[in-house]
Write a structure and sequence with these properties.
With 302 residues, the chain is mainly beta. It has 2 domains: 1-32; 39-299, 6 Propeller (Neuraminidase). Helices cover 10% and strands 48% of the residues. It is globular.
């Protein structure tokens, strides 16, 4: 009888340990792959989310009311769950970047044939052109103090990283080299810009220090990495990763390139354009998980 009781107690302990390990594995899996939630859907593509500083609104590019080849900027109210159009032009407006004070939105558009950068005043609804010419300028990023804008320009053939003031003047090259240098993102402390570069072969995430233009490579995977996005506290960087032929997912790492981990599951769809909420608790992104591109969000652990 004692031996039977001993075996029964051991079996119960084994079952509890097994259940605990299963639970730990489930929790770990959840941590590795947070469950995204659909935020903005509808007919056509909803892309390139950009939070306003209040964390209650989001600007994005929407092709819902047009063909998939053209899009307008819209703003989504997270509390009211409603959208309002900000632009209405026959051309396409894409990749909005909200100024630190929340008043201006820089975007790129092909209104003149080539892709140039424009600035929308959210108070007056006036639009001013920041760049011109035949070179394609796109993918703007504001400095933390709102005085400068980093952007991607193809003026020399390959995409390079340039800087200009908030009025589109004093344009100077920052990263100017052979191969593609793209998708700049300004660090919250204003000292560095993260970007994607082919300097090491495949596109990887790099940093350039503004004080001396020193460059540091952060990722070294055989896949492509691009579109870095800084957490508001400057401690982490979210980015896109995908093979040359395949589908992209979202990843995250420390600001020094350590502790890389996958955020969204690899599937037969693409997850692009991560954007941190002002409180650092949520990342918005675009995904064609359901067919067309929609705006999704996922919660991030501190």
């Amino acid at each position: 009888m004692r031996r039977a009781s001993f075996h029964l107690a051991g079996f119960i302990r084994f079952r509890l340990i097994a259940l605990s390990l299963l639970a730990l594995g489930f929790v770990t899996a959840c941590r590795q792959h947070p469950q995204p939630r659909l935020l903005v859907g509808g007919a056509g593509d909803q892309r390139s989310p950009a939070w306003l500083p209040d964390g209650k609104r989001m600007v994005y590019s929407s092709a819902e009311a047009k063909s998939k080849n053209t899009a307008d900027l819209c703003v989504f109210d997270l509390e009211a769950k409603t959208s309002r159009r900000l632009t209405d032009d026959p051309a396409s407006e894409n990749s909005p970047a909200v100024s630190p004070d929340g008043r201006f939105v820089v975007f790129h558009s092909d209104r003149t044939g080539a892709t140039n950068l424009y600035c929308l005043d959210l108070v007056t609804s006036e639009v001013s052109q920041l760049t011109g010419g035949r070179a394609n300028d796109s993918l703007a990023a504001w400095s933390p103090d709102g005085s400068q804008i980093a952007f991607q320009s193809e003026g020399a053939g390959d995409p390079d990283i340039w800087l200009m003031d908030r009025e589109g003047k004093e344009k100077v090259p920052l990263v100017f080299q052979a191969g593609m240098d793209s998708t700049p993102a300004w660090s919250p402390d204003g000292r560095t810009i993260a970007f994607s570069s082919e300097q090491g072969g495949n596109p990887d995430i790099w940093l350039v220090y503004l004080a001396d233009r020193r460059m540091v490579r952060l990722t070294r995977s055989p896949e492509f990495e691009w579109k870095p996005a800084w957490s508001p506290d400057g401690r982490r960087i979210a980015y896109c990763r995908g093979p040359r032929r395949g589908f992209a997912s979202l990843w995250i790492m420390n600001a020094d390139g350590s502790s890389e981990r996958q955020l969204t599951k690899q599937g037969k769809w693409d997850d692009f354009d991560p954007a941190w909420s002002p409180d650092g608790r949520t990342i918005a992104f675009e995904s064609n998980h359901n067919g067309d591109f929609d705006i999704w969000v996922l919660d991030i652990e501190p």
